Amino acid sequence: MVEIIQFFSRSSPWVYLILIIGFLVSLRSFLNNLREQRDQVFGLEREITHQRLVQSSTGLILIGIILIGEFSLVTFLSPGLPGSSIITTPTINPLMNLHATIVPGQATLTSGTPSSSAKTSQATGCIPGKIAITFPISGQEILGKITITGTVDIPNFGFYKYEFASQGSESWSTILAGNKAVINGSLGYWDTTEITPGDYQLRLVVSDNTGVELPACKIQVRITK
User: Fold this and answer.
1) Contact 70, 16 (CB under 8 A)
2) Contacts with 97 (C-beta within 8 Å, 6 or more apart), sequence order
3) Which helix (H) or strand (E) segment is 206 a member of?
4) CA torsion angle for 96, 101, 106, 107 (degrees, to 10)?
5) Bridge partners of residue 151, in order along the sequence
6) Rounded distance between C-alpha atoms, residue 135 and residue 6, angstroms
């Protein structure tokens, strides 16, 4: 459903063009039929013209409704839907709050030594001050329920989401999403208690208000027990 809405949002210039052309054609037909009905004298001819008039007026109304629907979709629904449609996975607690302050004792860092791959991992695709994850940092070991902090502040901001995947995998699972810009603040929670320990990728994906995704900010983390 989200993909359909984003498609119509991205294609809105062409949709508007087609609808406006259809509206003008229907309006011309309506005016011609209205003029013909006024000029008709015989009852049968007036009845035929009346039917054409009803058809053209119905077309005008339908196109008008579609125009209003497209405008509402692009202006209101498309920017707001991703933030209100939080996607959960079987390993994520669906009752987690989208924006909240961290609760003491729920986020803990281990004192263990990161693996060699974690030591050499670096954040990629991040843009300081625009798209960035500030906690956890790349190569860090984490456990329990943590608060992801960072920045999502781009021109024409639409929404953001953050996802995780096993190291080397491209099968991403969405944790949470939001539709408000954040500057060096809380992006939301990540409960890792039900995730198998190991090395994972964490990425922050930001889209503008037309649904275009920017390159993701990625870091490497290790989940421990």
Assistant:
1) yes
2) 188, 189
3) strand 198-208
4) 110
5) 132
6) 30
Q: Which SS3 state, helix, strand or coil, does residue 37 take?
A: helix
List of residues 6+ apart from 202 with CB closer than 8 A: 133, 136, 148, 162, 163, 164, 190, 218, 219, 220, 221
Locate 183 and state its tokens. 């500057």
C-alpha–C-alpha distance, residues 209 and 157, integer Å:
6
Question: Where does residue 207 rank: exposed (0-12), middle (13-18), buried (19+ CB within 10 A)?
Answer: buried
Amino acid at position 71, single letter: F
Count CA atoms closer than 13 A to 23's CA, side-chain side: 14
pLDDT recorded at residue 98 = 42
Tokens of 31: 């005016």
Q: Residue 204 and residue 149: Cα distance in Å, rounded?
A: 11
Cα 91 to its chain centre, rounded Å, is: 22
User: Side chain identity at 149, as an amino acid letter?
Assistant: T
CA-angle at 116, arms to 214 and 126, nearest 5° = 15
Going by the DSSP 8-state scheme, the letter that residue 180 receives in this structure is S
107-108/157-166 β-pairing: unpaired
Q: For the chain, list residues with pLDDT below 70.
A: 1-3, 5-6, 8-10, 41-42, 76-121
Q: Does the predicted TM-score (pTM) go above 0.85?
A: no
Helix, strand, coil share of the chain (percent; to 5): 35, 30, 35
CA dist 221 and 143 (Å) reads: 10
- Distance in angstroms (rounded) separating the CA atoms of residues 135 and 179: 20
